[in-house]
Amino acid sequence: MRLHRLSITAFGPFGATQEVDFDALSSAGLFLLHGPTGAGKTSVLDAVCFALYGAVPGARQSPGASLRSDHAPADLPTEVQLELTVGGRRLEVTRSPAQPRPKKRGDGFTLEKAQSRLRGHDPERGWQALSKSHQEIGEELTRLIGMSRDQFCQVVLLPQGDFARFLRSDAEARGKLLGRLFDTRRFAAVEERLAELRRGGEARVTAADERILALAQRIAQAAGPAGAEATPIAARPGEPGLAEAVLEWAAVARSTARERLDIAHRVLTGAEGRQRTARHALDTERELARLQERYEETVRRAAALEERRPGHDRCQEELERARKADRVAPALELREEAELAHRRADAALDRARAQLPSDLADAGPDQLADLERRFRQELGGLESARRAEARSAGIDGERERLERESRADDATVRDADAWLAGWDAVHAGLRERIATAQEAATRAERLAGLLAPARRRLEAARRRDALADELLAAGETLAEARERALDAHESWLGLRERRLRDIAAELAAGLVDGTPCTVCGSAEHPAPATEGDGHVDRATEETALTAHRRAEETRARAEQALGLVRERHATAHAEARDAAAPAAADGASAAAVADGEAQGAPGPSVDELRDTVDRLAAEHAAEHLLAAGTHAAREALDAAEREHADRLELRQEAERRAAARTSRREALDREQTALHDELAAVRGASGSVAAHADRLTRRVELLAEAAEAVRAERDAARRRKEADDRLSDAAFRAGFDTPEAAAATLLDAAAQRDLQHRIDAWQAEAAAVADRRAERDAREAAEQPAARPSAAQGAFETAEWLLREASSALAAADQRCGELTRLSRQAADEVRRLGPVRQEYERVARLAGLAAGTSADNERKMRLEAYVLAARLEQVAAAATARLQRMSSGRYTLVHSDARTGGRRAGLGLHVVDAWTGSERDTATLSGGETFFASLALALGLADVVTEEAGGVRLDTLFIDEGFGSLDDQTLDEVLDVLDSLRERDRSVGIVSHVADLRRRIPVRLEVVKERQGSSVRHRL
């Protein structure tokens, strides 16, 4: 992670916007952040932390504290903007805390919510907005940095002497920080995975044991009383020996169940014998009771039969008389039908006579038939008159049609005459329209040839004017670049001259006692030169040289850009002055333009060329619109000529049809006169032949109906008389005095069947009683004592119940044996399946316990992740020792310790070895100054190891806040030499201190100035 730029506005002690250029400060590798107490040195670090995490370090994040500067104007919002590179990405994060702002309407203030913005830089597209969400920005930055806010403050910012916190932390706190820095999540994941596999294996073993116990419970339920008597299983799920105990217990239950099955077989055999005996006794008693009951029922039925005998005799006599009357029934039905037919015929005759004239009311059928024939003959003679009448109506219709055609033809002739009267004028106008459109097309082509060059010149004039502005701006840019290049060159030469004046002091800084000087070759250095005020080191000179070269490159690019703009401007100017392309619609304007160019004028302006283009475009559009009507004019002329020919033809056809209609009218008039004379003789008093025919048809129908009604009435009277004679003869032969007596005795088929059923039922009952009186076994049973079937039934039910109980007991015993065998087989299968599962569980449990540090095989009780972090801590201690020995003049060495302290786990201990005493002791025993440079060396070593770690976070910028006042001059020099060596790895260290001696030792400084209107920063490069 590398910081580039920090912008602070109305934050802490800074009342206005302050810019911090970390790129310039970091170029020397070591820079000093100094200023008087309370000026705001630590607030700069707070701003960095707030930009990254949205909060300042925990020690200064007190409840209710405001980050807004009291020096800031009310309308200037508090804002921190940080530009950095992290994870290979260049980002810009901007944050504003919750703060009051003046209301837009009215007086007073309103609280504005905190805001955050994150942008990313793309080499091709520039800065791109990424997010405005507090949560998303915080998660993204935390993921890229790889540390939380507290960890970042401990490793990168290290504010107010907190170097010693990591040095004095316990193993658990060190483990959390190192785990985030070195990304040991995969080892923690291995621990968790092994623990998860152990829990899964334990769950599978427990589940298998629970299934075996569930089978044992089912075996106990299936065993019944035998299971309750057995010794219960004491083992619990997961305990060894559970499976064997269940199998042994199941074998005992199966043996007991087989013994009970043999006993149930013997009990069932005895119950079956007793049941057969009781069944035979019950059947005997039931048969005796049945015979006795049958004999008593026969006696009762014989008495009842004698009581119904008189009714039987009456039914038999009534049935015989009804059967005699059945022989008279056909004659009675024939008489009734003849009477009904006579009444119908008489009513029809009355209706027919009512419709006849009074003189024909008493006419006979012969007279009516003669009249009918005469009217039918007259009706047949009207057919030719009907055809004549139809033809007369057709002639009337045809004459009307001829009149309509005559009127239509007259209108056609008048319309054609009116249209043809103006034909010459219309024809001449259409030809003139075609000629005008053709001339407009010719003019439009000529204007199109003038319009395209005029537009090109207009576009060139616009580019010429735009490039003139760019040319002026490019000239100003080149002048500024030349001034900056000249200033950078002078600055570099001045710094180089100052460095050469003090080059002796710079060479003297590298002298070592006993080593020859590279200039004079002497091994003794009695009076080495010292640095004077304003000494310039090599890094400062190189920075100035780099700035000079960059300025020269900028000047060269500005000159190149100016030449390119000049070339483009000259090309556009030449195109705008092109006299070969005409730019006017008439010859006078074109000549004027040519004269102006010949005299060396600067060329036409954009407005002049625009007016010319607009005028040409308008004229071209008008001519083009007029020329577009050529095709329509030709089509209109063709259509008019076709219509002229059509109207001439229509008028001639109308005249021919008029002559033909005159001849047809004369022929129709002669035919109509002959038809009128013929119809007048036939119709008589009727209005038409059809009306006369309808009247004759009605008369014929009435006469035919009346004649038929007279004949039907006479036939019906004759049939009625014949039916009376037959009925009287049939009643006499059947033995009845009158037909009425026979009708009174007559019964329908249902009544006769009912009588027959009664007679048959009595006779069947009499036969049945006679048969049962003849049964010998019933008479013998009646002579014996009364039967007792209820007692035999009770004895049989008891024996049946005992048999069912024995059968149920046998079935239950057999089912119990089968169920126990099946469950025992299932238990054995479960035990066999459990074997590999338990072995796998024991193997995984040993590995999980070893990785978690809870196994007896892990002597130091060290977790796998702690073991890996211990190796990393050894690397950190080794890297820190390289600097600690330089800072302590070879006295102290940091070593890693995996010894256990108290009841805690081992692995992340840290000790210091004192070379003067040869003892190894805890780092907490160091003095204040010793603690400072020891913890500083440890923090720098930690940064080195994290950077070298493949998956770790690169820490390119570190800040050291205070602690240098506790060092003597020699130790301070050694510490600064160590910090200055960090430049070799492209890392920068910022020292926050108000120690005055550091301002002399560190030339690159960021000074925080405390003023009444608020603090400000100044760069000293």
What does the secondary structure layout of this molecule look like, with pairings?
Layout: E1 2-11, E2 14-21, H1 22-26, E3 30-34, H2 41-53, E4 79-86, E5 89-96, E6 99-102, E7 109-112, E8 115-122, E9 126-131, H3 134-145, H4 149-157, H5 163-168, H6 171-182, H7 185-223, H8 225-229, H9 242-307, H10 309-325, H11 329-355, H12 365-380, H13 383-421, H14 423-501, H15 503-508, H16 538-576, H17 587-598, H18 606-627, H19 630-683, H20 689-733, H21 739-745, H22 749-773, H23 776-783, H24 789-852, H25 864-887, E10 892-897, E11 909-914, E12 919-922, H26 928-948, E13 957-961, H27 969-980, E14 988-992, H28 996-1001, E15 1005-1009, E16 1016-1020
Parallel strand pairs: 3-14, 3-15, 13-14
Antiparallel strand pairs: 1-2, 1-4, 4-5, 5-8, 6-7, 8-9, 10-11, 11-12, 15-16
Helix pairs in contact: 2-4, 6-25, 7-9, 7-24, 9-22, 9-23, 9-24, 10-22, 11-20, 12-20, 13-19, 14-16, 14-18, 14-19, 25-26
